[in-house]
Amino acid sequence: MNQSFHFTNFLKSLFTIAVVAGMATTTNAQLRVSEPLAQPGYYQMKLGDFEIIALSDGTVPQELNKLLQISSQKLTKALSFNYQTDPVEASVNAYLIKADHKLILVDAGTAELYGPSLGHLSESLKRAGYSPDQIDAVLITHIHTDHTGGLMEGKQMVFPNATIYVSKAEADFWLSPENYKQAAAGMKKYFVEATTKVGPYMNAGKVKTYTYGSELFPGITPIASPGHTPGHSFYAVESKGQKIVFWGDIMHSAAVQFPDPSITIIYDVDPKAAAASRKKAFSEAAKDGYWVAGDHLSFPGIGHVRNEKDGIGYRWIPINYSTYSKR
Fold it and tell me: Which CDD domains does the protein's record reference (predicted)?
């Protein structure tokens, strides 16, 4: 698929992001009427010799009727089956991997960009017993600002001792001066935000780009999952025969997309490729039975996938809550 196609479709995607950002601001204003809940913001599990800690950046209401490519009738039916009504509160999650004396973060949350109900990643990290300056590496699934916004607070690096890892295809698109020049006036801000959040690390020599096919760290491997963005990546983590795959934005609504993985969201640059990546991800997770973690699945966003009897859909099985450490 050529770069011109990607760029044209990204402009369409960015326009919808602009619209939805406005919607999020309105809905967050409504949220402030309610008293916020003091949730703990982190959840731990063992994976072989590693430890995985889910970290909450917060939640935000999403008007799925404006976001998902699905009829209103089908959407209402899917949500009703799951005792949900539109708008649906979506989680924004990140994940900490404790592996071989390293602290490795998967995605970085939103910071100040999307209102007061989000931007709580650093707080959740501290509640879990860690500080941002202890992080050794941040693995970015893609450079949308609900995944990279938390890299910077104003002009200060939130993770000053971390190296940022991102796929070459993703970095080449978002950090390209030429793509910025070609973008419509109303879209340039999204390239500016990408540069503002990732650029300082790049300038400090703290960004490493990769192509696929080898480990970034022992037991941690990036996997190409294009469609949502050109260089969207999963991260597979394995230890002592156990495995978890961090999905990033392969999906946005469990109630809708597990039963029908062909349903796409307006943020996808290439909806056909995004649906194909999602179907493959669901199929492999159901077949092999490994753990998966999604940035927008209801916190902690960790669980398993099973095939449904219809041969088309899948069932999400969230992790069983535990306070018992199986060491």
Answer: OPHC2-like_MBL-fold
Residue with tokens 């999307």: 114
Instruction: Answer whether 86's CB lies under 8 Å from 79's CB.
Output: yes
**Three-state DSSP state, 93:** strand
Mean pLDDT (whole number) for 64-88: 97
Task: Provide the token pair at 265.
Answer: 């969201």
Output phi, psi for 89, to 5 deg.
-75, 125
The beta strand positions in the chain, using DSSP E, are 42-47, 50-62, 88-99, 102-106, 137-139, 152-153, 156-157, 163-167, 207-210, 220-224, 233-239, 242-246, 291-293, 302-307, 314-318
Phi/psi for 132 (5° steps) reads -55, -30
Residue type, 198: V
Alpha carbons 57 and 150: distance in angstroms, whole number: 9
Which fold, 3-318?
Metallo-beta-lactamase; Chain A (3.60.15)
195-221: burial string, b at 16+ Cβ within 10 Å, e else: bbbbbbbeeeebbebbeeeeebbebbb
pTM of the complete model: 0.89
Cα–Cα distances (Å) from 206 to 138, 157, 195, 198, 299, in that order, read: 10, 11, 14, 9, 30
Q: Per DSSP, what are the bridge partners of residue 139?
A: 106, 165
DSSP string covering 152-217: EETTEESSTTPEEEEEHHHHHHHT-HHHHHHS-GGGHHHHHHHHHHHHHHHHTT-EEEE-SSS-SB
Report the helix count and the strand count for the chain, using DSSP H and E: 10, 15
What number is the average pLDDT over the span 236-248?
Answer: 98
Q: Is 155 exposed, middle or buried (0-12, 13-18, 19+ CB in 10 A)?
A: exposed
The tokens describing 19, both together, are: 């619209």
pLDDT band at 187 (very low <50, low <70, confident <90, very high): confident
Distance from C-alpha of 285 to C-alpha of 303, rounded to nearest angstrom: 10
Q: What is the mean pLDDT of residues 287-307?
A: 98
Using pLDDT thresholds of 50, 70 and 90, give the confidence band for residue 327.
Answer: low
d(CA 308, CA 183): 43
